[in-house]
Amino acid sequence: MPPEDENPSAGWPPPADRRSPDETGTGAVDPWARSAPELLPLDDEDPTPAAVIAAAHSAAPPDDEQPTAPLAGYAQAPVGPVPLGGLEAYVEPPTAPFAASPAEPPTLAPAAFAPQAAADLTFVPPPAPMPPSGYPPPVAPPSGYPVSAAPAGHPASASPAGYPTSGSPGGYPVSATPGGYPASPTPGGFSVSGGPGGGFAAPPVSGTPGGYPPYPASGVPGGHPVAWPPSGPPVRPRRRWGRLLAVVAVVMVVVCLVVGGVAVVAFPWLKERFDGTAPSGVPSPGPNAPFAARQAWIKSRIGLALTEQRRALLAGDEQAYLAVVDSTAPQVLDGMRTQFRSLRAMRVAGWTDEPSNPTAVAAEGGEQWTTELRGSPCFVTSTCAKAGARAQTRWRIHDDRAWLVEWTPVTAQPSPHPWQVAELVADAGERTVVATTPAYAGELPVLLAEAEKAAKVADRFARAGATPSRYVVYYAGPDEWRRWFTWNPGDTVSGVALRVSVERWELMLYEDNITPEVLSGVLRHELTHASSLAGPFKDSDTMWWLHEGLADYAGMNGRPVRDYLRLPAIKRLVESGWDGDVEFADPPPNTAGWVVSARYGISGLTMTHLADRFGEAKLVEFFHRVVHDGVTVQDGAQEIFGTDWAALERECADFVRHSVA
């Protein structure tokens, strides 16, 4: 239960009809006190924690859906336009390496300028008389290859009939080797230019006997360049590794572009498969197919419709959000419209709506299936713990699409959520979202300011890594108080923290009992439940004193013990013969209101003493080890505080007695 936070500086006077301390047993500032013994003060564990948890998780979570069709293989790399995220990239087929351009004819230069220049040129003399018949003209070596020297002791190039080839007749120039390569040396020291000492020597070109003019080196009349036409054995091409590497690089770029294009096209399809939906073009397995196959396909149709709704909700497109509703269901349109507008008012930034396995139902107008949805909104931030808002739905299957024909929020705790059944106005801060009906819109500024301050206190008591993304606070009038979350805790309660899923708690404040002097204390108390109790825990009834003691300690927020508003009830219980046991369990329904308030107070003072002696950080660690990890109080005290719990409990009891003496 929340604490009482009497704060005269708040500026709002108490209502005229507030009950006196004699009526409540703890004073008018205790909004959770009961005047009748049959009424139980309600807080996070009432009517029982087991009922709360069972209500929040009564239905099994939906099964993971497997793809309803085999995944297609990758298409062959295309040639031509390839779509890339809305753009087109033209992919050309790989081309062969560039062919070498034919060598240009060499130009002539005087040999005297440089020996290298002479070696790179071919001098062709004017036409000369042909040698006698029987002496075939020598064939020039293939273009581009140097002429190798002859073996030692042999002429450089033998011709038929044993005519020597070394040397040329006096006065006749010797042709340079073809292809621009330097000639290998020859006997006699003849240079390329025909004189001795000219640098690189040229081999004899023709094997004509002495006295005959040399035949042109190319063996072609008319002085054509030696490389035209090619003669001799086939030319062995040079290995051009640079060009080969360039071709490989081009091919790799093309392949990457093709694969990237395929991925861009295929990724949305694969994502829809793994999200449990399927593209609209997936054919139906038919009504006579096995039930499991038909059911999986129906679930995929419903999942596709829910995916469209989610996108529309987050984009703020109300028309698209309602487009999945069957036109013959106007009441569903009204409910969906209310839900859309309320979620948008609360700054929805993330949304999941998970369907259970659908069940076929007999109905007119085509095939129809029912399924339960579990919706989870995230406010302001795109990620958060699940919320477990449940709704029963019925869908009509037509033209391979699912159309919503019925939608009814479940009326079992913790549903319906306020945004499912009420038009809401809301505001958001750095840590909280506050929402109410339009009738109480004027309360939002004060609510948000106080909630933001209380959230900073509550954050101190969350387990590391489990701080809520946003605290959600609803402000309810009398009608909403009895209807929202199917809770109806009674008219003497100011606020409750409700467990809407294992990891998530939300608050509801009652307009009739939330006065300015208690607002901040109620928020600190209940938000501390939301922060400290997130996650699974056991034995919530026996751990009641830890749950409520920590929340009341947070509600005090460092104020002196003498200002603790539960002291009168604590004093009354101590004087009535309290035995010093601080480990209170959840009070039974017939417990008097002042006794319940006193037990809250003793638990709060116990937490205060532990924090004063060991520090707040140790207190929070002890709380989570016992509540969430299942460590016994005795083991937790020894592990965290380094002392025996029995002795420590006696210290706490002495502190309580001293506080009320």
Break the fold down into its secondary structure elements and pairings.
Layout lengths: L20 H4 L24 H8 L23 E5 L2 E5 L23 H5 L121 H34 L16 H25 L2 H5 L7 H16 L2 E8 L3 E3 L5 E13 L9 E10 L2 E9 L8 H4 L3 E4 L3 E5 L7 H15 L12 E6 L1 H6 L11 E7 L2 E7 L5 H17 L11 H13 L10 H9 L17 H22 L1 H12 L5 H9 L3 H16 L1
Parallel strand pairs: 9-10, 10-12
Antiparallel strand pairs: 1-2, 3-5, 4-5, 5-6, 6-7, 8-9, 11-12
Helix pairs in contact: 9-11, 11-12, 12-14, 13-14, 13-17, 14-15, 14-17, 15-16
Walk me through this protein's architecture.
By secondary structure, the protein is of the alpha+beta class. The protein has 17 helices and twelve strands. The protein has helices at 21-24, 49-56, 115-119, 241-274, 291-315, 318-322, 330-345, 418-421, 444-458, 478-483, 516-532, 544-556, 567-575, 593-614, 616-627, 633-641, 645-660; strands at 80-84, 87-91, 348-355, 359-361, 367-379, 389-398, 401-409, 425-428, 432-436, 471-476, 495-501, 504-510. The strands form three sheets. Strands 3, 4, 5, 6 and 7 form a five-stranded antiparallel β-sheet that branches. Helix 14 (593-614) packs across helix 15. It is globular and about 85 Å long. Residues 1-235 and 264-280 have low confidence and may be disordered.
